[in-house]
Amino acid sequence: MGKYQLDYKGQAAVQKFHEKNSKTKTDKLAKIEALKKQYLSQKKKEKKS
């Protein structure tokens, strides 16, 4: 066991911090960004029509 143990709330905060500051994006974030790009491109097409 490590010297400093985190409770579940602390573990979640550390995980969120590392996800936010990582250079590579997680699958979930990449999927969300892909959906966002797709949605915005559809909106542009609808606006032009």
UniProtKB/TrEMBL annotation:
Name of the molecule in the record: 30S ribosomal protein S10
Organism of derivation: Lactococcus ileimucosae
